[in-house]
Amino acid sequence: MAGCVSKGLLALVVLLSLAACGDKPAVEKARPRVYVQEVRPTDFAASVTLTGDVQARVQTELSFRVGGKIIQRFVNVSDRVTARQVLARLDPKDLQINVDSARAQVAAEQARVAQASAAFVRQQKLLPKGYTSQSEYDAAQAALRSSQSALVAAQAQLANAREQLSYTELVADAPGVITARQAEVGQVVQATVPIFSLARDGERDAVFNVYESLLMAPPSDQTLVVSLLDNPAVKTTGKVREVTPAVSAQTGTVQVKVSLGELPAGMDLGSVVSVTARAPSLASVELPWSALTKYESAPAVWWVDDDGKAQLRPVTVARYLTGKVIISAGLEAGEKVVTAGGQLLHPGMRVEIATPPTSQGDAP
Predict the structure, then answer these.
(1) Which of 63, 140, 246, 320 has an alpha carbon within 20 to 30 A of 281's alpha carbon?
(2) What is the rounded CA–CA span in Å between residue 112 and residue 147?
């Protein structure tokens, strides 16, 4: 009987113990510790430094107007030339034959005109006296007009042949500097194939090849300072004159031409120059690279709401810089953005905001 009482007491103690354990609150899991940065929008003006070269405002590709074999070349690259200066010459033999043939044709037509003119004069004298008929007179007059027309055509052919012969000389159409040569003596070239590139004297441009993404916003100041790349002390001012409307298929860039003012000593045709352009300032948020994540395929950041829960927010990135990103939209002033410790977060998770160490230490 005593054994049964002991067993009953033991069972009661066990039940009371279990009941006491069930009354204890569940232990909360440790919250992930994160570092945050409060959003403070500031004015950000993106700047970009470009490298290009000085080019002539007008560049001309010089070519022969007839085909043939080059027998003489009188200039080299970087030579200065004057207007109407002969730069190269083709073999004129074939075209000279055409001139001689046309000249002979003119002489023949002149003889026919003289013969037809004499015959017509005779008919004019015989017709009033009745020694010839009207039909013979009309035939003589028609023959004279026909020979005169043939002479005019032959003279035109001779003038054309002489003009073609003159095209065997390639002349500069304006003063300037030879910047390229595409043919040599002995080479047979076709008409219109470029032989020389001529940079005409006059206004100069600084030409830059720019990726299209850098031109999303126009520069705030259209007046730019252009300086020599190897000697920034040599500089001048210029204004954007032209931006090509299409992207180059070879380079993926657009060409920007900056009209230059008076060139200082040392800044010559072909000099390598640089320019720094600054876009208009916009209210933006600067965050470290570690704050950036993605939502589906768009950039995003983690932020902590008033309840201490992590939420995912898509943002717009204006510029990627070394060690930081510039956010142009998606965040409000005063919000707390997670800058470290967001690798294992998911929406709605409670987090513990940690104070970043003053010295470099381990990230949370």
Answers:
(1) 246
(2) 6
